[in-house]
Design brief:
Layout (H helix, E strand, L loop, with lengths): L2 H14 L4 E5 L7 H10 L4 E5 L5 H11 L4 E5 L4 H10 L4 E2 L5 H8 L5 E2 L1 E2 L2 H9 L4 E4 L7 H8 L7 E4 L8 H5 L7 E3 L5 H6 L2 H12 L5
Parallel strand pairs: 1-2, 1-9, 2-3, 4-5, 6-7, 7-8
Length: 217
């Protein structure tokens, strides 16, 4: 295992254990970044994954990192080495990918930013394990087999811990959190687009508070 990968995985584990849910957010207005982060942190959800799906995502990561130091801001939907480098330059504390490629994993092995790569099968999980990734994203969680599938993976791959994302809601998050091989879940329900556009930061804090109290269901 690459020494950088080992150290990054240790740091990533500490971040993922901060709360039962990592907030997965899509920000299309840079002005929403800081109040959104403050609302989530106030509700007990410090780990925030800003997905690189909009033109302002990198700027949003940088703004959160500078204005909300108590937030642990990361970059999501990282698909290439170039995007990983951009996220690192913006101050991202971690990066998340829906899958993995050799080029992305090579870049991560030389980066100070911990990567949470995605797997949706036993073969993908095993390949990442060979590269030193004992922490992986399970995506798309519900479509790929849900909690039952992850439970089955726990037998042959007991040393891997997953952060399932994709189709996770407050109503089914507990099914995943009950599994021994789940470290946390990724949820997009904490930051509805309509609430962000309306400036409903108190409502978002309330959603975060409820998420921070989630436990095995």
């Amino acid at each position: 295992m690459n020494a950088t990968t080992r150290g990054n995985q240790d740091g990533l584990e500490r971040m993922l254990r901060l709360a039962p849910v990592v907030a997965v957010v899509v920000i299309d207005d840079r002005e929403h970044a800081v109040p959104l982060a403050r609302a989530l942190v106030a509700g007990g959800i410090p780990a925030i994954e800003v997905t690189l799906r909009t033109p302002v995502a990198i700027a949003a990561i940088e703004a959160i990192g500078k204005a909300v130091p108590e937030a642990v801001v990361g970059a999501g939907t990282v698909l290439s080495a170039e995007e990983l480098h951009a996220a690192e330059s913006a101050g991202a504390r971690f990066a998340v990918s829906p899958g993995s490629t050799p080029a992305l994993l090579d870049a991560a092995a030389a980066s100070s930013v911990p990567l949470l790569p995605g797997a949706a099968s036993a073969s993908e999980a095993m390949a990442l394990r060979e590269r030193g990734y004992r922490l992986q994203k399970f995506f798309p969680a519900e479509a790929a087999g849900g909690a039952a599938f992850l439970r089955a993976l726990g037998g042959p791959l007991p040393d891997i811990r997953f952060c399932p994302t994709g189709g996770i809601r407050e109503s089914n998050a507990g099914n995943y959190l009950a599994l021994d091989n789940v470290i946390c879940v990724g949820g997009s329900w904490l930051s509805p687009a309509q609430l962000m556009h309306e400036g409903g930061w108190q409502q978002i804090t309330a959603l975060a508070q409820a998420a921070s109290r989630l436990s095995a269901g």
